[in-house]
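STRUCTURE:
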């Protein structure tokens, strides 16, 4: 299992299939933002991270321009990560409440995390073709993470991508925060608002709501 994931990740790191995203991830890494102007940006695809024997997989949409595209680790070094890991720590799913950089010692307990799309898209809006290109990798991750029984999709696009990957056509399955759906014999898909600053600052998502969903996954 471990070897297959390692082999897959090496392949993902070499991927240049989506020309628009390759150009964009490199452009961001070169131009940077003032706050991080002295840092070396990652600027490559972002692979999954965590416990490869996990029961739970957490799916984000894509690396953030100055978050994972800078630090090289999913949900690391931005506001979404600050909120998410504070909640995950409180739900006893991590060894620490912060995810700042690749060497910060973060460990996930019974959780694996990965972006649906491995490269940062302009304005956080991937094209359908780019999502299709990258589905193949997520599909394989799911195949190799044999103990996964629960998928937590952060945000509507990650949620809808799961439905496509598992070819779920049931019309009653729609994105609704806190809801869970059996999508095949083994897997249950949970929906949760994305922990983006916009959702958190507008009060659409707060710590209590996030921790409630995380505790449900753990107890499921
Ligand atoms: S988004 Fe996925 S398929 Fe497209 S270049 Fe990045 S890793 Fe490759």
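SEQUENCE:
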């Amino acid at each position: 299992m471990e070897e297959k994931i390692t082999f897959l990740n090496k392949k993902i790191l070499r991927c240049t299939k989506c020309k628009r995203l390759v150009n964009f991830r490199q452009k961001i890494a070169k131009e940077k933002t003032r706050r991080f102007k002295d840092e070396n940006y990652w600027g490559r695809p972002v692979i999954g991270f965590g416990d490869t024997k996990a029961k739970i997989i957490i799916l984000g949409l894509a690396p953030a321009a100055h978050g994972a595209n800078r630090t090289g680790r999913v949900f690391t070094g931005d506001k979404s990560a600050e909120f998410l890991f504070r909640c995950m720590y409180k739900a006893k799913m991590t060894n620490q409440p912060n995810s700042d950089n690749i060497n910060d010692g973060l460990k996930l307990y019974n959780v694996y995390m990965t972006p649906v799309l491995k490269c940062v898209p302009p304005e956080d809006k991937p094209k359908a073709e780019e999502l299709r290109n990258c589905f193949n990798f997520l599909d394989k991750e799911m195949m190799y993470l044999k103990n996964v029984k629960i998928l937590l999709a952060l945000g509507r696009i990650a949620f809808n991508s799961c439905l496509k990957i598992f070819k779920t056509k049931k019309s009653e399955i729609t994105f609704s925060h806190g809801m869970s759906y059996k999508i095949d014999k083994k897997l249950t898909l949970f929906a949760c608002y994305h922990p983006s600053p916009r959702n958190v600052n507008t009060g659409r998502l707060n710590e209590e709501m996030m921790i409630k969903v995380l505790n449900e996954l753990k107890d499921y």
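REMARK: The helical segments are 2-13, 19-31, 68-71, 79-90, 128-144, 156-165, 197-201, 207-219.
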